[in-house]
Structure formats: C-alpha cells, structure tokens
Amino acid sequence: MQGLTVKDLYRHPEWTGRIVTVCGRYTGWSGCDADTYMITRSDWVLRDDTGCIFVTGGAPARPSPLMGNNTTRPAVCIKARIRWFKGKCTLYFIDRPAEH
C-alpha cells in the first residue's frame, strides 16, 4: 500500500501486519505524543502533516540538533510493516524505496 499518511495508519487497526509505504520527516526519537509505542531505545519518529509514529529499525543518518524545526529535517520514505502493540500503532522498517 502506497501513498498513505500517518493518520491513515491510525484509522485502520485492521491493517496490522500489512506492508505500507509512508513518507514524512525524520525527527529523531522524541516529540511524538500520538498513540504510538516505542519498542526499542533506538526507535525513531516519522512525522508528516497528519501526525507522527515510531519506527523500529532503519533510522536515517542522524541530523545535527542544530538543523532546526521539522520542516528542515530530512524527508524520508520507508516501506514498513504495521504493528499494533499494547493498543498502539508502530512501524517495523523493511526498506527505503529507491528514489526516481
């Protein structure tokens, strides 16, 4: 499934186990107050215009904290498996689709 927003993932818990492609911005490991769950200490946050979600694995190179707000953080698209854990949604990284 491609072209989804973070909000779409939260709206469809029945999608658990599906592989999706989601694009947004890498914002490190903090700053997400949504109904998501950090599985490991190395999880990171993917944020788009509709919300944010924790991703397990596949973190991009960490930008400097001096990069500024979310609009200046690196844009990233990922392919990941949706999982619901303790009633909260999270993504398990699979791959970064090739850019065309």
Describe the structure concisely.
The protein is mainly beta and 100 residues long. Helix content is 6%, strand content 38%. It is globular.
- Taking all Cα atoms into account, the compactness measure Rg is 12 Å
> Which structural class do the helices and strands define?
mainly beta
Largest sheet: 5 strands, mixed, barrel
Distance between the termini: 18 Å
Secondary-structure element string: HEEEEE
Which geometry do the CA atoms define? globular
Widest β-sheet, arrangement of strands: 1-2-3-5-4
How many separate domains make up the residues? 1
CATH superfamily: Nucleic acid-binding proteins
CATH architecture: Beta Barrel
Count up the helices: 1
**Fraction of residues in helices?**
under 10%
* Oligomer category: single chain
- CATH domain class name: Mainly Beta
Task: Report what the structure shows.
With 100 residues, the protein is mostly beta strands. Helix content is 6%, strand content 38%. It has one helix at residues 6-11; strands at 19-26, 44-48, 51-56, 75-85, 88-95. The mean pLDDT is 85.
Q: Any descriptors?
A:
single chain, 100 residues, mainly beta, OB fold (Dihydrolipoamide Acetyltransferase, E2P), 6% helix, globular
